[in-house]
Amino acid sequence: MPTFLITFVSVLAGGAAAAATLVGVVNAQTGPPGDSPATVGNVSIDETSYGSTQ
């Protein structure tokens, strides 16, 4: 195959992978509150032991 064709196909494949990743990240961050990891009410840090050396 000619070099320019391989380069073009690689750019298309990379662009498709990047677009799919971006769509997945945006959907995960803007989903319903129960499904979104960015909910304020769902704190995953234990405040009692945060910073503790024990």
Note the main attributes of this structure.
mainly alpha; 1 helix; elongated
Q: Overview of this structure, please?
A:
There is one protein chain. The chain has 54 residues and is mainly α. 50% of the residues lie in helices and 0% in strands. The protein contains one helix and no strands. It is elongated. The N and C termini lie far apart (62 Å).
Tell me what portion of residues adopts beta-strand conformation.
under 5%
Tell me the distance between the termini.
62 Å
How many strands?
0
Indicate the percent of residues in helices. Answer: 40-55%
Low-pLDDT stretches are none
Q: Biggest sheet, open or closed, and with what strands and sense?
A: none
Number of helices: 1
Gyration radius, rounded: 21 Å
Average pLDDT metric:
78
Helices and strands, in order, run as H
Structural class: mainly alpha
Q: Label the overall shape.
A: elongated
